[in-house]
Amino acid sequence: MATQTTAAPNGVVQWFEERVRATALFNALLHVPIPVEAKTYYLGGITLFLFMVQVATGTLLSLYYKPTPEAAYDSVKYITSIVEFGWLIRSIHHWAANGMIIFLLLHVIRIFVQGVYKYPRELIWVFGALLFAVTIGFGFTGYLLPWDQKAFWATTVGTEIAAAVPFIGESLLQLLRGGPDVTDATLSRFFGMHVLVLPISLALLLAAHLTVVHQLGIANPKRPEPRPGQLPTPGLVQRWKPFFPHYVLDEVIAWAILLALLVVLASVSPAGLEDKADALVTPPHVKPEWYFLAVYQLLKVVPAIGPLTARDVGILIPMLAMVVLVTLPFLDKNPEVAKRKRPVALIIAAIVLIGMGILTWYGGQIPAVAVAAS
Amino acid sequence: MKRSRTRVAFLDRAFRIGVLSACAAALALVVAQTVLAESPSPSAGASGAASGSPAASGKASSGPTLSGSPSASALATATPKPGATAPAKIDGNTCYSCHTQIGGAQHTIADQWQASIHGQNGIGCADCHGGDPTSDKITVSMDPTKGFKGVPSRQQTVGVCGTCHSDVERMRQYQIPTDQYAKYKTSVHGQKLLLSNDTKVAICTDCHGVHDVKKASDPTSKVYPLNVPALCSSCHSDQKYMDGYNIPTDQLEIYKTSVHGQALLVNKDMRAPNCASCHGSHDAQPPTSTTVVEVCGKCHTATQALYDQSRHAELVNGPKCWTCHGTHDVVKPSEARFFHPTPPQIDCGTCHNLADKTLKLNADRFQNDEDRRCDTCHHVDSLLYSQAQGIKSALDKASSAYDLALTRIAAAAEAGMIVADADVTVTQSKTSLIQARAAVHTTKLTEVAAKADAAVAKAKEAQDFADARLAESQNRRQAMIIVVALIAVTILALVLLRRGLDHTYQAG
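Predict the joint structure of the above. Result:
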């Protein structure tokens, strides 16, 4: 698909080129055409940028962070109060984590609305949906690490959601917490997941996602990809624009805007720290982090259906939704990508999104019940 | 055959009705005798003679008792006999089965007993009323020769209760004290009942119930701490009932507005004192001016220790807790409570007997909360007034410093800064401020000033922490503007570069 080549340079670059032969690789990676009609809004790229920010700031934080209940809180306080620019690193990590989830969600919505998950890009979608799950896992595991009251009790409530899974709920809860309660065992395994398991998983999935994107190119949202044996629309001329440097430069501009936004947020509203976690002092209002509020609230509002308890229904709905999300390209048989030709899918998606929004808002408004009572 | 069975069933029913009717008639006879023999009962109705609060049951009046005419010897009559064996638990209780079948009020009484702490622990009807509960013949079970006493009089009731409740051996298994009866005899209630034969006063059953006695720890019990004010006021707020005792009836209304009343009745804080905490329960007495310090000091131990160091404590007839804080209307103290807005007109004779210069504190002068001030006694031109001013000034200074530190910490926290250090330090300031306020009870300026200065120092330290955090926040925001400006310039350069690329691409 390469349309341009970069001439082999002289001097030092030439020296490296002779030993690495990178020019051909870069040519293959960068010089790919993208449809002029493609409108990505840079959402995927911004998510990638935020992940890179997370890797960088997370690495710096790990130099000082101590993952034990005795030391975790004090180490975070030390990072925030004593370490030079520790507050900035931690606050950017905090805001980038939230931003990553927001932009990933927007990216998924963009892909769905444009219908570009369809043939032949089903696998891109599947990898993306799994990336979404891993990102949520990042947020969930990272939230506990400061070991303050908010972290402790939000994790307590969050892991309670897992306990609602029928049949395996209790075992899942034990697996997540490393015991019946949130303890040092929970902190250890959350830290391990956060800095080892999830980054490796995300890196592998991201590599697969981007590789397939590179191989298939960015989709044209104006027309579906021709199926095997299907001829392109007669008289239609596909116009292209270069990925590098044009599109890459657009991405970099978007990243720079995001970086400025992160700096502003970190300065105006730095990551806080509540009192040290205390299993004996339940705060009056315990809630999970905002991206779990919809599921948390759903558990409270859904009724029992037939033999299923309300709790079963409340957890089965999001589980089913996740399965539908991952397998969407295989469930949606409509080959069309134009919005006017996919009204049902778009209306269902809008209802789901509005419902999630209402549940999230509702969950944020109503004081959560104390953990002991729940 | 069928006709024969019908006849047998009819006879059986007739026999049962006959037995029940006989029981009811006998019981009615006994009750009628009792009622005729006694004065108008303080609590007529289903609960029996000793049931309910006097205030809620038409009140009691003095009169003859079953055991004879009331006199000073009543105390001895009602006193449990030393060595008297307490009644044992019983397995069969024909009283219950019979009274349940009678129905109506008797059924209610039987049910109340069964649900009561006595019923649950096998303390039967005969333990209080006498008789033979093992016999289902009314002539035997309610035979006076078998010890049947019927409904005990109010004087007898305290003795009946005391028989068991002063028996150490019997009470050991329940882990409850056995001095209630002894205390009751020393109380105003006990003295009036047993010596003056005043049956209007409270007896055991008025507070604990008659047949429906509950554990004091049962939240539905009338003697549960949260319920005590309502219990006492059932008599003490009844102006008509209290007529003749020459004590006010507005205590509950006043108490409700006090810090104690608010804590107990509104916040349900069981640590807050109820009526019995200060007046006693079984040994209820109004605290006298000489004992009030000890009464308040039961809870406010540290404050009492400070007061004991004061000049006030040394004085005969000197100021006590109530002088400055009141009694039922104790309000939250503050620095604003030192002086009147305008000093009252007082002279030497206001507080001193001019003849011998001894102190005289007229309680009426401290009746209103607004008058419980230092300058109620200390003249504005006196040295002691200046000392009080010094104490107030030291506290004002500490209080202001503490409040300012809190404001600055809140501002720093609002800016998203971590203020843990400032929080710790301001808590230390608060501790010193509390100690300084408590030191007012020593009436010593040096004591108060030392604690107040410590509070000021810690408050300033906390404020410095908070100010440093605020300054850091400010610096961060200024640096943020520079960084954002730099990024904006970079973005601008990238946009220009991008446009250039477009031109080049289109031209190409």
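The two ends of chain B are 125 Å apart (CA to CA).
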